[in-house]
Amino acid sequence: MSSFPLYLLRHGEPEGAGRLIGLTDAPPIAAGIAACADQARNLAAEVLIASDLSRARLAGEAIALATGVPLSIDPRWRELDFGAWDGMAPGDVEGAALARFWDDPDGHAPPGGERWSALVERVSSALGDLAARPTLIVTHGGAMRAALAVLCGFDMHQTWAVDLPYNCLLTLRVWPGATPTAQIAGLYP
């Protein structure tokens, strides 16, 4: 089966950057939207999808306007839910609890938050629904890491070895199937 390019674009800088912003709908700053539109300018995407959170959705709307590719919204591409920690600065979270989470986000999810495996499961579901066409998804750092886990077989710790700053573009070559696989074709900060 032939492969297709999958472009994962992290949203631009939101208000409150540096905090644990999961489901908090932190709006993007204007420069963040512009930076995302700039990253997407020369992609030949035929499908455009964005998370429903405004920091990704508004960038997706700007890209749709610039490219003429219709935008679909899919909440499965949301960031990890940080529960009680959502919106907090890391320094305001009890240090040992935060360290346990970073070491094992499946076994030590934030209070009332989402386990790593749940994020991987929903991103896997979204990936399974993609058509084999050049696709751009405007999403979040956690969802991008989950896609690397699903498509490249990275474990959770390996996904953190990849720096994914705001408005970075991760390009994958995907081979669809019952168990899709991919290789990293580029990372553009």
Automatic annotation (TrEMBL):
<dbReference type="InterPro" id="IPR013078">
    <property type="entry name" value="His_Pase_superF_clade-1"/>
</dbReference>
<dbReference type="GO" id="GO:0005737">
    <property type="term" value="C:cytoplasm"/>
</dbReference>
<dbReference type="InterPro" id="IPR050275">
    <property type="entry name" value="PGM_Phosphatase"/>
</dbReference>
<protein>
    <submittedName>
        <fullName>Phosphoglycerate/bisphosphoglycerate mutase</fullName>
    </submittedName>
</protein>
<dbReference type="Pfam" id="PF00300">
    <property type="entry name" value="His_Phos_1"/>
</dbReference>
<dbReference type="GO" id="GO:0016791">
    <property type="term" value="F:phosphatase activity"/>
</dbReference>
<dbReference type="InterPro" id="IPR029033">
    <property type="entry name" value="His_PPase_superfam"/>
</dbReference>
